[in-house]
## 1
Amino acid sequence: MDSDIDLYDKMLQCLQPNSSVQELRVEGYGGMRFPSLLSNLSNLVRINVVSCRRLEHIPPLDGIPSLEELSIGHMDNLEYIDSEGVGGKEVSKFFPSLKKLEIQYCRRLKGWWKKSRGEMKDDSDESTVEEELIM
């Protein structure tokens, strides 16, 4: 079983998609780590990640300014969409082009970020944190 996971991880890490790719669909991926290839695909308009049952988080996606549609589904172990948090990014720059967000059947989902924005800001009070984008 562990060798299968390693094989999945290596297989997806080897992909070298063209940077002009606009749509990415990952279905049934059995690895535990999502590859960093998303950071090189800044022209993506649609991302669909489904039935990747072992993944606990996916890499940050808010750095893809052209992303219009994000669909995540049937992710049994998904706890956080972005485990790295958003740091000092402004809410207005969070997915500036997003028109459609679909999250289905992610029963272990705890939140968007592993750390809440309130934990990342030292000088904020609770009322400000509540007004910010928190899932």
## 2
Amino acid sequence: RLEMSLRRRDVEQWMSHRRLPVELRRKVREAERYNWAATRGVNEEMLFENLPEDLQREIRRHLFKFVKKVRIFALMDDTILDAICERLRQKIYIKGSNVLSRGGLIEKMVFIVRGKMESKGENGIEVPLSEGDVCGEELLTWCLEHSSVNRDVKKIRIPGQRLLCNRQVRCLTNVEAFSLRAADLEEVTSLFSRFLRNPRVQGAIRYESPYWRSVAATRIQVAWRYRKKRLSRADTSQSACYLG
């Protein structure tokens, strides 16, 4: 309680010093309360640094059991999962926060541990996301597709290309999550590219992902509309021929 009280005092003094507006102060207080409830004020990354590496690995496997709920990662062996878990960072989002914005860069994958989000595509279709779901998973496929391998079997990043988001992901409640940054994901894909290019893994990415399901549904709708127009034009042409 004393630590929480001191932390709250420091935050209030900082907001006053920076002259934050009332609405921003309210959001900061809410984020601080939720962050404290989720972590009890403990910085896990600093705590891990002082522990033996094998113990760090065992603790991460325990903390990140949720990763295997995602079929993409359920197919992976412990070596790859350890590499991913080592790079996961805890994130706290408050209700109403935008995790991904339409037209913005996708710079992370986010794994939901607790709370609810909503993904809204360009077509207006809304996809609910909750515990065990992931957003930004298209980044994994993109990292694999926009790279090449040289003669030394070292992965080379193709410059000048960035992945833009075509949907908005918003928090419906306060959300506790873990994120994997694009730079870390690129490192993992460079280390394990052969495995990640496996058709089974690619199939899991494509067919189990809410994002890719939404993309597939949109493409099917577009193809169906195009086909209906062609059939309609063909019927009109035939009618004109008969009348002629």
## 3
Amino acid sequence: MCSRVCKNCGGTDIDVDQARGDAVCMGCGSVLEDNVIVSEVQFMETGGGGSSAVGQFVAGDASGRNPTFGEGFYTGVGRESRAQTLQNGRRQINTLGHQLQLNQHCLDTAFNFYKMAVCKHLTRGRRVAHVVAACLYLVCRTEGTPHMLLDLSDLLQVNVYVLGRTFLILARELCINAPAIGTYHLPPILPVFLL
């Protein structure tokens, strides 16, 4: 029920249905409004605990321009996405790092490298698993663990050259000097004389 007046019959018994988006006169059955646009803004809670507006913004003056809510209105969307990216990266670093039997210090350092890569937009266009593996390998090189890039390649079932390329890009862009792989001193092969 609404306090509107029907233009056809003058009746005041008008049914407004927000779900259908129309207004109908109950006296003569005339449709007075069709596709009523709701003027209030509704928000929905997202999975990460944030909120987002429901529906589509339409300008009130029918100019076609979207209304603006100030500079800070959409900033939460990027932060929420970044938080999810970091959370996903931490989870994958922990999973892969535990398979390599790395200690918590190495996992934390790898996550710091991953955060730096996200801040410098080095994750765009690359698979998260490849960036995570490159960050873990950076830690292996800087901490001197006995792991090789081939170990990570085997765990992820990814071409070692693809991981190597990602590793080199991260090392260069993050300005991390990854030391060369240590050479192990093997005993010289002694000639065996057969008598």
## 4
Amino acid sequence: GNCFPCPQEGCPMMGHYADRFPEKLKRVDQKYFLNTAADEPFATWRQKVFIKLSGVKKTRGDINLVYYDTQGNSKEYEVASGDLSQDDVYTQYLDVEINPKNTTKIEFRWNKAIFSLLWARLGAETVNIIHGADG
């Protein structure tokens, strides 16, 4: 959990595509990390998530996405937390443990901060998720 977000020059690479980062080979005593899921098959799928909010102009709380799969499993991921604004697009890389091919539903969840306006409502105007063969 200490390697993300990556430094400006990028994350240390290992495995597939590692040869695309020749500068990494010149450094010594590097730490390499491999993100895995907690359970078998230990694979994770990197997804880039963009969320544009609708509703109140500004509020406090956190935005989560909950992934559901065909076997009834679910996993919740935090995308943003703290001061939230309708004018911002929240972007996050998620290492999702649920295979995109088996995903049946992705739920947008807003958890309101205790001191937030009681009447405040917040929704997702758009949620874009990008994934590919190499994450």
